Amino acid sequence: MVGEETRTAEKEATVKISLFSGSIEKCDADLVVVPVRKGAVNPAFERLDRAFRGALAKAAARERFKPGKGKMFVWHGSAKGAHGLVMAIGLGTPEPDAAEWRTAVARAIGIAVRHHLRSVAVFTDATFERRELEARWSAEALALASYRFSRYRTKASKETLPGVGKVGVFPAAPDPAGLRRALEHGLMAAAGVVLARDLTNEPANVLSPETLAARAAELAQKKGLACRVLDPAAIRESKMGLITAVAAGSDREPRLVHLIYRPTGKARRKVALVGKGITFDSGGICIKPAKSMDEMKTDMAGAALVLGVMSVLPDLAPDLEVHGILPIAENAVGGSATRPGDVVKSMEGLMVEIVNTDAEGRLILADAIAYARKEKPDVLVDLATLTGACMVALGPFTAGVFSNDEALAGAFLAAAARAGESAWRMPLLESLEKDVRSDVADIKNTGGKWGGAIAGALFLKAFVGKTPWLHVDIAGPARADSATPLCPKGATGYGVLTCLELLARM
Ligand code: BES
Ligand code: MN
Ligand code: ZN
Q: How many other CB atoms are found less than 10 A from the CB of residue 436?
């Protein structure tokens, strides 16, 4: 429960977030943030301005501040006022979406950091229907913008992050129960994103298949999820030849983690989430160039995403049965590594020619999909840092979405839009199916020169049968090359919020 001024965020988040239910001019946060929406009156801003006897509006006019997307105005309040700083965040429309709202709030954290401020309060002056939504997004933004991965710094950073975040509404709410729930929801979702970021940022010497599986089991224990971990022998016994082949070059043996969330009542539907868990992708014998190879420690972002989602489900308690399935391996080089041209039998039975050992993600996913289908899910979603080609097609911020089911594709894209994450539908072109045909076996693991993201998806399609299926290529958005207001450089935790939105309306 979010208590008045007392509730702290999950311990992963560095900022404590609570509801501020007093009136805005009494708020004593070091930084008070008010939205200024394009094309709308701004009662919160006006009320604050009155408290400062018109000085706020005057300063805004002097600086020629105009509301608009990405615009902001920072004002050092008078010594007599309760506020240290007032910040107006410009919004491009009266009703901004999740992405715009969160980014605007996250910029406030940036200002707080720059000015070494301890506490930040964000106010929404939206209509009754929208303010719970904006409160939730504010909590998410405060938690996510305060995220740092500092586990391996032995010297404390000079940066001071604000330790206290408050979310208020204007005018003050007479009955704040709904707002508290909204904050609670935002904090839980953000904790899922933070978990995904932490796991993804972890270097591969620390996070091996064994330790990733152990962390998953620990999480299951803590959250009350059912958990089954298949060790290398169990993987071989289950005839997962592809996972075994990908792991063959590494001294670190593979795992397959199967987590289950079951609702207390009857489940309406059964969903399987499959996440690619390559703890390091050297490319195998088809070795990658040294430049940026270090980034391939994030090649388990799909698995981390699924863990982030699973970790939140017991708190959100949807009436769905959700299976989280993580094929985990290291793609290394060694004397027993799989060679280009090797032919391997998949769990499903299809014979696969591995022409390129760097196209390993689709191999472990194919076996994990076959494993997941034994549960007879109503819906199967896989999420994977699968292809550089998807980044060529869509740029680095957008996931490619492939599906054999129109309703599922529509639901996922709608969920991404609500979550404020960028995703775009891609086609499963029949004309490229011949590219994954093998000369010697049933199928091969790469396509032709063009359409690499589609070839990857078409390879997976050969293993899904008639199951309603959706494949999300997150090679681009799982990792950021540079910091944004909401996320430092590195793992983004992309996809957790979208999957939670999807499950919430499934
Ligand atoms: N993990 C990579 C894909 C990737 C590339 C993710 C860049 C994030 C950033 C994947 O295993 C891979 O190596 N894909 C190959 C496929 C090719 C050999 C058909 C690629 O994209 O080059
Ligand atoms: Mn690869
Ligand atoms: Zn990979």
A: 24
